[in-house]
Amino acid sequence: MVGVPHSSGCATCVKRRIKCDERLPGCAKCEKYGTACPGYDRGFKFITGKPYRTPRQRPKPDTSSTSEERAKTESLITGSRFQASLQAIVLKEQPWSLTYGDANVMQSIEALIQDFSQPALPTQKHIVSQWFGFLPSVYGHNQTLDASIKSFTAHHFGKALQNGQMIAYARSAYGEALYRLRKALKDPSECLSSHVFYSVVLLCMYELFTDTEDPESWMKHAKGLGQLVKIRGPERYRNDLDITLLKVSRGLIVMQSMFSGEPCFLATEEWHQMMRQQRALDISLELHNSIEQFFAYFTYAPSLVHKFYHLKHTDITTPEALQIISATMEQALDMQKKLLLWHEQFSQIAPPPVENLASTDDPLYPIILTYSNMTDATIYCGYYAYMAIIHEVLRTFGYPGPHAQMVIYFRDQICRSVEYSSVGILGPNRLGFPLRIAIEVADSATRSWILARLDQFSKVYAASQPKNYEPILTSNI
């Protein structure tokens, strides 16, 4: 390819025509030479090329009332109309040649936003996709954030176009971003800034999409993210960017708490009140309050799970254990009552799912659930997962009622939602918590079904690798 250097070393070593050791964040040759190493990544640019078109496919017969909607959203990455402008991405010769506000980076950011916003309509954006919309306004103001943006953007399009050079560039930019982040976190004037917070969220998301080695990588990054959120304190989340990033982060923070055995710091009225006060303009007050009420309840899930799994490995005949069992069942029953009332109210605001035929001949779940939009689907699936936990607690400790059947019902509600909720690049991210709970209470057939879906998701979203869904609650708590 014209204009692509053969060496992967730093620019200084390439210019001096010597072998670079490629040490991060800077090579030893530059250090010995007495100059600052410029790093290894190569900026990327767009070159005019022929528009990309997906192969024309023969239309299939309409099998349900939602077939037309599915046809619009069936692709995760391939076939995106935004790949047209990305088909001819190449690397520049000079490292870090993208200056602040560079049109090439801005062009790729705009395409990234469009890709990650699918399949939601402009008026039905999911909170996780909304935060990408801030990228154009923050790029060019902070070096740590700029490197994080380049890394995430290059990886996304490198995977989409199967471009190994772009993926390598993304890794290099990621190393640069981590190096700068460590320095920023030591700087009192910068460590609590919105830019650093955005960088941490973006790098955490990068790991969720890329890490294929460490099954618990997501927990390590979620823990760091939670520590930063906690240190910043509730009073710092007062602008649209910060509150959006917090609402993106809180699901991961609660999950990390649940599966690590650590208390969830978000489970306080101070945090709940702050988040209730921050409402996006494109959501009604009634829907906002209902969603925030659910998330407030959700922050108490880790404490219930911690008690439950502690007792599963304890002699429950001791007086101390019997006291904990009583308190655990009391908490489960109280939350069940609250969630049932919440669900009754929420279903008046957000239409419940409707049943439709699956798009494939699925022998286990031939009837699926479809929703009004992705936000509703996410909240409903979170509710199913929470109720599955509650009924599993009550079933295990012998509380009267059909709790075993209810566990199966809510588990199946999650699985029946997978076809609808998994659409789009962020689909696997939305399903992370519900499927993790579903697989914990699954029989062998359902577990095999879930693992097969996770294997499909992992081609795009590394955190969905089946090995990451081995039972971890019993081993860590």
Automatic annotation (TrEMBL):
Residues 48-74 are annotated as: Disordered. SMART domains: GAL4 (SM00066). CDD domains: GAL4 (cd00067). Coiled coil: none annotated. This is Zn(2)-C6 fungal-type domain-containing protein. It comes from Penicillium brasilianum. GO terms for molecular function: DNA binding; DNA-binding transcription factor activity, RNA polymerase II-specific; zinc ion binding. Keywords: DNA-binding, Nucleus, Transcription, Transcription regulation. Residues 9-37 form the Zn(2)-C6 fungal-type domain. InterPro entries: Fun_TF (IPR021858), Osmoadaptation_assoc (IPR053178), Zn2-C6_fun-type_DNA-bd_sf (IPR036864), Zn2Cys6_DnaBD (IPR001138).
